[in-house]
């Protein structure tokens, strides 16, 4: 009987796992690996989500603390839109807010990696009240085929240099067109799982997932799910899924108990205290139940 790899879902909610995994393995490595002029090294990684009062939160690709005390926000784009500066402004203001609450005022870099589809982009958005500036790396300039050949040769020699490892991560973004990108994603994942060093494998897979989540199609996504099932990164995503399933199951049980107590005449505050859940949650369940009836 054929054994199949466990199934898991590469979901948007899992991005914080792979982004942090990639970021943790960037510690001690220079920003020049992204094709930037800066030789400053990463010393720490910070959470990337920005909770805002909207339908969904904003999430940058990576947030690094650098050795000179400054902070680097990293985002990648497959096309240029002036409206993206609004998003960058929100990133910047949220990061400033976070650090001010900690009594810190670091300098901030807003770094944008453009895929090979973009050959020119403005680096600033200036109004009387604000001035948003970006530092850009154009991946259209990358020698894709040389990078791919170097990675293949490095893997046959059992190990990749830091530069080759980052090239493996960024390679899918260096190709123009949808079809070429999907082919490159599949090829890079296939190469990553051939790495004998599991630390390098985790870095490469986490990086590929972090930087391709905006462009990956369903067919490629299913391929990656099959390949990653037996890897360390895949195991982490499955463990996260199991934990979320357990938490959801416990929440469903609490909801049933809460509704039963409310029907028996218990007050919302009493139910909240007994189940150790916010009053707002109990009230939303009560309202949902009344609407259903």
| Low confidence ranges | 1-6
Distance between the termini: 49 Å
Average pLDDT taken over every residue: 82
Percent of residues in helices comes to: 40-55%
Total helix count? 10
Strand order of the largest sheet: 1-4-5-6-9
Structural domain count: 3
Computed structural class = alpha/beta
The shape is globular
Q: Which H/E pattern describes the elements? A: HEEEEEHEEEEHHHHHHHH
Number of strands: 9
> Major sheet, described briefly?
5 strands, mixed
Strand content: 5-15%
Radius of gyration: 22 Å
Descriptive terms for the model:
single chain; 293 residues; alpha/beta; five-stranded mixed beta sheet; two-stranded antiparallel sheet; 9 strands; 13% strand
Describe the model.
- By secondary structure, this protein is an alpha/beta fold.
- The chain folds into three domains: 12-138, no CATH class; 142-228, no CATH class; 251-292.
- The protein has ten helices and nine strands.
- Strands 1-4-5-6-9 form a five-stranded mixed β-sheet, sandwiched between helices. Strands 2-3 form a two-stranded antiparallel ribbon. The chain has a two-stranded antiparallel ribbon with strand order 7-8.
- The chain is globular.
- It starts with 14 loop residues before the first helix and ends with a helix.
């Amino acid at each position: 009987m054929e054994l199949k790899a466990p199934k898991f879902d590469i979901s948007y909610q899992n991005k914080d796992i792979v982004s942090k995994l990639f970021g943790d393995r960037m510690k001690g490595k220079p920003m020049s690996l992204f094709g930037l002029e800066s030789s400053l090294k990463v010393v720490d990684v910070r959470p990337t989500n920005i909770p805002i009062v909207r339908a969904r939160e904003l999430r940058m690709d990576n947030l690094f603390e650098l050795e000179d005390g400054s902070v680097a926000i990293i985002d990648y784009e497959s096309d240029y839109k002036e409206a993206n500066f609004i998003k960058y402004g929100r990133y910047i203001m949220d990061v400033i807010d976070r650090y001010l609450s900690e009594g810190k005022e670091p300098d901030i870099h807003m770094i944008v990696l453009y895929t090979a589809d973009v050959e020119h982009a403005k680096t600033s958005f200036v109004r009387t009240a604000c001035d948003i500036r970006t530092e850009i790396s154009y991946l259209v300039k990358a020698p894709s085929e040389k990078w791919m050949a170097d990675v293949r040769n490095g893997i046959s020699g059992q190990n990749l240099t830091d530069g080759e490892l980052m090239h493996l991560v960024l390679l899918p973004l260096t190709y123009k067109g949808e079809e070429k990108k999907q082919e490159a994603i599949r090829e890079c994942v296939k190469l990553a799982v051939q790495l004998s060093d599991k630390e390098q494998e985790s870095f490469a897979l986490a990086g590929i997932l972090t930087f391709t989540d905006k462009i990956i199609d369903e067919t490629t996504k299913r391929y990656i799910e099959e390949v990653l099932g037996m890897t360390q990164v895949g195991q982490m995503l499955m463990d996260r899924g199991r934990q979320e399933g357990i938490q959801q199951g416990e929440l469903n049980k609490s909801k049933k108990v809460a509704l039963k107590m409310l029907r028996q005449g218990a007050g919302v505050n009493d139910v909240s205290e007994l189940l150790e859940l916010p009053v707002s949650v109990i009230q939303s369940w009560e309202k949902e139940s009344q609407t259903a009836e």
